[in-house]
Amino acid sequence: MIEPRTLHKVAAITLSFWIAKVIATTLGETAGDFIAQTLGLGYVLGFVVTVVLLIAILVTQIRASAYHPTLFWAAIVGTTTAGTEISDMMDRTFGFGYVLGSSLLFAGLLITLAIWYYRKRTLSVENIVEKDSELLFWIAVVFSNSLGTAFGDALIDPIGMTFVQGAIVCSGVIGVVLLLHYFTKINTVFLFWAAFIFTRPFGATFGNFLTKERARGGLELGTLETSLVALALLAAIVFIASRFGKPKVLESSNA
Fold first, then answer.
1. Is the pLDDT of residue 140 over 90?
2. Are the C-beta atoms of residues 38 and 212 closer than 8 Å to each other?
3. Does residue 248 carry a pLDDT above 50?
4. Is residue 164 part of a domain?
5. What is the rounded CA–CA span in Å between residue 12 and residue 245?
6. Environment class of 206 (CB within 10 Å of its CB; exposed 0-12, middle 13-18, buried 19+)
7. Is 2 among the domain residues?
8. How many domains in the chain?
9. pLDDT of 151-168, one tens digit each?
10. In a domain, 81, yes or no
11. Closest alpha carbon to 11 in 77, 66, 80, 93
12. Buried b / exposed e across 86-114, counting CB within 10 Å, b at 16+?
């Protein structure tokens, strides 16, 4: 079903968007771990598999003439899953470490946003319809989701937080962004991207809490089982949002 608001290719930025984003990031973390660890494919082959799938989804998404909820959120899940493999491969296979890996991903994100702003004079996702703008949007999403994964893992491994503590820290950052949105005049597009980035480590740490071994502080629910539950929840949220959409929040076309 195509949403009635036609001049856009991105989901309306409402509360349901952020709920779906968190679920999608959790699904991306558990699905990525399922591919690389549970199936034993490793991070490099897992990266190849997820990137090939992501490219196929993004080609279809960008070629579409209007917003399709299922297609858009499939692309979001694809970026979070690929982001999991990218971050893990950089740290655990190539040995970059979290600081260098995060720095490279952050630089890639800044360069993408700079190119986007230089070309369009805006970073707003509100009315994306042109294919070049949408391509830059998805490149930024891949970098931000990979960066978010690296940040979430850094909270757990080098810093030594538990999965729950990591999720609390990330939710605190998201809470600050919300307060800044409602009680300050800070640019809403900047706040959108800040929230977009930090919902990823929250989903990553929460996903790890659900699936990792009890000895490491997790619930050990299983990557496949958790992924299927997250997929069902995401489908339900997207269906409800597509039927009962409301005006956007936390994003505007001011920048």
1. yes
2. no
3. no
4. no
5. 8
6. buried
7. no
8. 1
9. 888 888 888 888 989 989
10. yes
11. 66
12. bbbbbbbeeebbbeebbebbbebbeebbe
Which two structure tokens, joined as six digits, stand for 16?
């349901």
90 close to 150: Cβ distance less than 8 angstroms:
yes
Structure tokens at 120: 């369009």
4 contacts: CB under 8 Å, gap ≥ 6: none
Sorted by sequence, the CB contacts under 8 Å of residue 219 that are 6+ apart come out as: 209, 210, 211, 212
Q: In this structure, is residue 36 part of a structural domain?
A: yes
What is the span of the domain harbouring residue 22? 15-150+222-243
Instruction: Reduce the secondary structure of the chain to three states and give it as a string.
Output: CCCCCCCCCCCCCCHHHHHHHHHHHHHHHHHHHHHHHHCCCHHHHHHHHHHHHHHHHHHHHHHCCCCCHHHHHHHHHHHHHHHHHHHHHHHHHCCCHHHHHHHHHHHHHHHHHHHHHHHHCCCCCCCCCCHHHHHHHHHHHHHHHHHHHHHHHHHHCCCCCCHHHHHHHHHHHHHHHHHHHHHCCCCHHHHHHHHHHHHHHHHHHHHHHHHCCHHHCCCCCCHHHHHHHHHHHHHHHHHHHHHCCCCCCCCCCCC
Q: What does the alpha-carbon distance between residue 138 and residue 142 come to, in Å, rounded to a whole number?
A: 6
117: closest CA among 167, 178, 187? Answer: 187
The residue assigned the tokens 């930090």 is: 198
pTM score of the predicted model? 0.89
Residue 23 · residue 226 · CB < 8 Å: no
